[in-house]
Amino acid sequence: MSKRIGMEVAIxxxxxxxxxxxxxxxxxxxxxxxxxxxxxxxxxxxxxLDAEFMTVESEHSAMSAIIGASTAGARAFTATGSQGLMxxxxxLPVASAMRLPVVMAIGxxxxxxxxxxxxxxxxxxxxRDAGWISLFAQNGQEVIDMIIQAFKIAExxxxxxxxxxxxxxxxxxxxxxxxxxxxxxEVDRFLPPFKPFETLHPDQPVxxxxxAGNDIYTEISKSKDMALVNSKKTILQxxxxxxxxxxxxxxxxxxxxxxxxxxxxxxxxxxxxxxEIAIDSLRAKGMPVGLLKLKLWRPFPYDELKKAVxxxxxxxxxxxxxxxxxxGGPVCGEIRSALYDERNRPAIVNYIIGLGGRxxxxxxxxxxxxxxxxxxxxxxxxxxxxxxxxx
Amino acid sequence: MVKRKWPETWQEVNPGCIVFEPGSASEYHTGTWRSQRxxxxxxxxxxxxxxxxxxxxxxxxxxxxxxxxADLDYCKGCGICAQECWPAAISxxxxx
Amino acid sequence: MKKAKxxxxxxxxxxxxxxxxxxxxxxxxxGHRACQGCGEALAVRLMTKALGRNAxxxxxxxxxxxxxxNYPFTxxxxxxxxxxxxxxxxxxxGVEAGLKTLRRKGRIPDRRVKVVSMGGDGxxxxxxxxxxxxxxxxxxxxxxxxxxxxxxxxxxxxRSSATPFGASTTxxxxxKTSFGNRRWKKNMPEIMAAHGIPYVAxxxxxxxxxxxxxxxxxxxxxxPCYIHCYSACPTGWRSASNATVKLGRLxxxxxxxxxxxxxxxxxxxxxxxxxxxxxIEDYLKLQGRFRHLTPDQIKYIQERVDVExxxxxxxxxxx
Lengths: 391, 96, 319
Fold this sequence. Notes:
The complex is a heterotrimer. By secondary structure, chain A is an alpha/beta fold. Chain A has helices spanning about 10-20, 35-45, 60-70, 80-85, 90-95, 120-125, 140-155, 185-190, 215-245, 270-285, 300-310, 330-340, 360-375, and strands at about 5-10, 25, 50-55, 75-80, 105-110, 135, 165-170, 175-180, 205-210, 255, 265-270, 290-295, 295-300, 315-320, 345-350, 385. In chain A, the strands form three sheets. Chain A has a seven-stranded mixed β-sheet, sandwiched between helices. In chain A, strands 10-12-11-14-15-16 form a six-stranded mixed β-sheet, with helices on both faces. In chain A, helix 12 links the parallel strand 14 and strand 15. Chain A is globular and about 70 Å long. The N and C termini of chain C lie far apart (about 45 Å). In chain C, helix 2 packs across helix 8 and helix 4 runs parallel beside helix 6 (about 130-135). Chain C contains twelve helices and ten strands. Chains in contact: A-B, A-C, B-C. At the B-C interface, helix 1 and helix 2 of B face helix 2 and helix 10 of C. Strand 9 (about 205-210) of chain A pairs parallel with strand 2 (about 80) of chain C, so a sheet runs across the interface.
């Protein structure tokens, strides 16, 4: 039976990881993901989880170690964010190319410099092309759910890819929320024991991580791309199973009050909670505005997006990161490209907000919705706006 | 055992590019690199096996008669065996 | 015409025929694409013979990775994985942790499988030093073997922190105002010994039984072990391909690369250099990378070699 709990989200994330009966965790301390590691090490130290908890000397080694553990056939996990994610960057495309189903929780945090420990999405956006499945959690409940789902998705034979779950630093990781925590029996029923595709063991020696020349690298890359593209099918299937067992539904893009909406705001992560309040308020005033919440960042849900914006006049994409050099928010860049071929696509406006932990309030979304409503008639003069910047 | 076909299309690339056949590199013959080859004078050979132990290719083998020979499919002609042979039973001979 | 050596020059009959006692099975097979006379390939071959079947190998990027694993082929008969350049040790520590927990949980057969991580001098003493230090400090049951050919050979002979003083490399070339590499070789075995791990040793492909015995010893020790193996590189050192084994002997006979082990902190010489060590010139003159050195420079290096050798002997004699 699931239990109703009030708990810090990072602690709950660690509890969820433990429920997945991982074999190896390798973690290096970095704010704001540290509580996940600390609590996980508590669980292991208290004998509640039979696992190796590796206190590695860097994030690069954290990712290397869980890659190693995964090749040995272990279910492996790490958590990091920001500079830590940057530091392990080299290993992320290797983990996906080796098709290792490891899971990583990311406490999203701004990237240096200047150093800033607070939330934005600059870190995960830099890992966009690493070949991982990328999920964004909106609240504590989704963190628990997505971590458990992540192992099932990652390990599925049709997928065999690493999965990361983005958890907004502090705003989510350090928030005490009311959540449903599944019990062990329920998780065991949902998530079968890990059956690795192939392992490093002398009883059946294989070589992994071979070098590939120009005669085959292209084919290998296509095969990896197709694996990630095709993983969406399994992700949808796993979410369907989740709904059946736990009653909570997940979709690549969730809609909130989008009926007859002329203006849509698209958000990711914890901003979506805040945006909902703004939508409620604007709807009460009769404004035809709704919200799209992007939960699945990679593989990108093209079909779902096209369907979600059908008949909409303006789409305001909210980014929490900058792709420097004129392209604006990375999410908006993606969405513009995705909708380019659509005949009746909405006008698209891009607002970049909440950088380096700057507060994002419902009022901000109301302002954005109002400004966006003008875009239908007159295209905005800038491709993107860094909202609230002092000039 | 049926030989696996070499992957050519992307569909044939196995997940993670794992190589399932241990030691399959021996399908590649490095002997073509050679400009000199070792020749044994078995009258001098004391069958000690030093040539075998020092071969970087691992291509020198002991025959049933106890004498040693190089597998010329792989021998790159480095000359270490001739250099290290205590009784000077091996000499390097130009190829071709 | 080459003369046969007199049997009386050889140490014992046992040594003479010892190669016959070595494991016959090859775990690093012919068909690998190392250069002619590659000392590192020879050393790797010897290591795998000493390891036998029951080992998992994690390999850093470098010559040995490139020449052994051209997808879809592999020269390895042991389970083997390459991940990247700096992390053979951290991948190895992860494999060890994985195998340990799976064995405890009964998901793999209940027997000890030794994890062996390997890298070149660049992957060990430079870019991989942090990962190696971490893995050793954490006390994993693993062996790390550094195959030291004293520069970045795979990328084209660039200087590393293990390049010897005075060697000419492509990034520390000898020129009108330079005599090549200006820094002394980093002392990796001492750095590893400072971790307080149970076993540290130096080894060379030219003393195969000594090397293989050290590998076997390290495999039997529970805990982190480190072996630093001299690996001659004819391509990078501009030496004759047939001189590889000879160089490995000369470097020991000159005292430039003594073969010793440190077991639980106790130093022991495993291959005694001659009472009167050979002058380093005997070793240097066979290699193009040292050809530019003047007699004064060679004398300077000789003095340092003598000092370092005496330092080591003091540690050995203490025991």
